[in-house]
Amino acid sequence: MQADGTARDEFDVPADVQDGLATLYALRTRTFTAGERITIPIADDGVLYSARVEPTGPEHLKLRVGEFDAWNLKVTVTGPGGEQVGNNMAVWVSTDSRRLPLKLQADLPVGYFVLALKDVK
User: What is the rounded distance in angstroms from the CA atom of residue 90 to the CA atom of residue 73?
Assistant: First the structure.
């Protein structure tokens, strides 16, 4: 972010930087161990964030689409100044070979939301 509050067109990024959606896809390819910590740099609109992901579980989820065992991925996102962005963020990914993103939640400045997978085709 520039001094006038606008996003920069160009900025230095570390290796393996992702955008938010690519981060979700990248997490789906991983094998998790409870208690490990994964750090992923995320670029969004000219700002570089850092996401720390801590898997817990697996745990059992009951959703409209069915019942699943899932990793609960606790997510902490910090901005360029180290300030925390949002609270209570988590993603649940199924433990099966599909690694379905089953549920997402976050408490952000715009409000609290929970998204749950409704259908699988």
Answer: 5
Number of domains in the chain: 1
Name the CA radius of gyration of the chain, rounded: 16
Give me the long-range contacts of 13-16 (CB less than 8 A, separation at least 24).
13/41, 13/43, 13/48, 14/41, 14/48, 16/40, 16/41
Residue 79 pLDDT greater than 70, yes or no: yes
64 found inside a domain:
yes
Instruction: Domain of residue 90: give its range.
Output: 20-116
Whole-angstrom distance, CA of residue 113 vs CA of residue 121: 24
Above 90 in pLDDT, residue 75? Answer: yes
Q: Is the residue at 34 inside a domain?
A: yes
Place 108 in a pLDDT band, splitting at 50, 70 and 90.
Answer: confident
